[in-house]
């Protein structure tokens, strides 16, 4: 890709970097505009939180599948026209979603948004990397891009909270759509109209493979998101979804192995670093999924208001930035990737063990700052090195396929991580609630004393004796439910912490982890 003449001569390099970075922000919007406030977005669409989670999987899963064919589109159209068209469609789609209340139509929009999210990212990211006149351009460019993605949740959530305090939800979507108009304008005035890649005919697109892999991804994601709610294999719908996922995945593999020029080259699995990188990505995202339990505790147990939780997430974001800077420094200094992984996973393990003792009925912000920042540093430290490690050992001709493996690790890690946390919380919550409820009975003098005192406090507020007694019992069982949630959180964090310790030991003794990432040979086009 030669981008030397794609920008008009009057545009300075620093302005080009800013413009390209602004254009990449559309990924933050498409991923964060609904996940930023799950409860409100779910109520706006009259759906359950699981439905919204599946909608997010639809967007990211469609992005994953579209990477297979993205190069055909970006190579067929002139870059300027291509990017302007994509961002125009993104803006129309986001604004249209403000008027959608039917969940099926919303899912179709999310499929379209996933396609539109995949189409410009690789082109823009490579143009951004090309603006850094350094052999470490990949590290710098990746740090910018993935730093933006990591910070998307607190950034969009704070904007969402402000909008919900001052305006209707739709206005946030209007502003998101207007950002796409800004992208179109910036590209129009700064880009030249010629192409930067060789033109490839659109008729060579492997639509069959695309449909097969997209079907496998979406049905597989549906299975994992709704498995707990629909009682796993007791539901015929779950069995059907799993069967469709396995059959279409099998047909995709068979087709790719049987054609001369496959869309995805399965020979990438011959490289040990790629297999290990995929596994580490998968486990990394599962360990990240526990952060949702921490945020749930802020809302449900500690009763923090949304604006405070939104602000607190910036603390974790600061940790992400520190980790990204440290990772870039270590990679530039050719520090062993093994040591980077050990430090990163150790920090995340420390976060889990530390936070185990913070799941109490009430905490101060000062109590959680240090472990919360350490988790952010660990995540930022691992992100870019994991991407480069997974792809750098694969020949350039397989770069696209190796990049898809990296995206797959992130997608399935986050999807299955959600499933694991959902099922673990449901099981452990129920177990602890039943156990603690045994101590709340009519024969317990202590229980009767607490009920009597609580009843008196409600009667003092003007409630009748009967209503006060009902509220007292409800309050006691509410306390039991909160304590059950805290115990479940502690148990999950402890298990994940020990799991990470095992992973750290395996990394330390693994002989396939190469000592450094060769940044000069790394031709990473996808991630």
From TrEMBL:
<feature type="transmembrane region" description="Helical">
    <location>
        <begin position="492"/>
        <end position="509"/>
    </location>
</feature>
<feature type="transmembrane region" description="Helical">
    <location>
        <begin position="372"/>
        <end position="390"/>
    </location>
</feature>
<feature type="transmembrane region" description="Helical">
    <location>
        <begin position="105"/>
        <end position="124"/>
    </location>
</feature>
<feature type="transmembrane region" description="Helical">
    <location>
        <begin position="81"/>
        <end position="99"/>
    </location>
</feature>
<feature type="transmembrane region" description="Helical">
    <location>
        <begin position="52"/>
        <end position="69"/>
    </location>
</feature>
<feature type="transmembrane region" description="Helical">
    <location>
        <begin position="411"/>
        <end position="428"/>
    </location>
</feature>
<feature type="transmembrane region" description="Helical">
    <location>
        <begin position="339"/>
        <end position="360"/>
    </location>
</feature>
<feature type="transmembrane region" description="Helical">
    <location>
        <begin position="203"/>
        <end position="226"/>
    </location>
</feature>
<keyword id="KW-0472">Membrane</keyword>
<keyword id="KW-0812">Transmembrane</keyword>
<feature type="transmembrane region" description="Helical">
    <location>
        <begin position="171"/>
        <end position="191"/>
    </location>
</feature>
<dbReference type="InterPro" id="IPR036259">
    <property type="entry name" value="MFS_trans_sf"/>
</dbReference>
<protein>
    <submittedName>
        <fullName>MFS transporter</fullName>
    </submittedName>
</protein>
<feature type="transmembrane region" description="Helical">
    <location>
        <begin position="278"/>
        <end position="302"/>
    </location>
</feature>
<feature type="transmembrane region" description="Helical">
    <location>
        <begin position="136"/>
        <end position="159"/>
    </location>
</feature>
<feature type="transmembrane region" description="Helical">
    <location>
        <begin position="314"/>
        <end position="332"/>
    </location>
</feature>
<feature type="transmembrane region" description="Helical">
    <location>
        <begin position="238"/>
        <end position="257"/>
    </location>
</feature>
<feature type="transmembrane region" description="Helical">
    <location>
        <begin position="12"/>
        <end position="32"/>
    </location>
</feature>
<keyword id="KW-1133">Transmembrane helix</keyword>
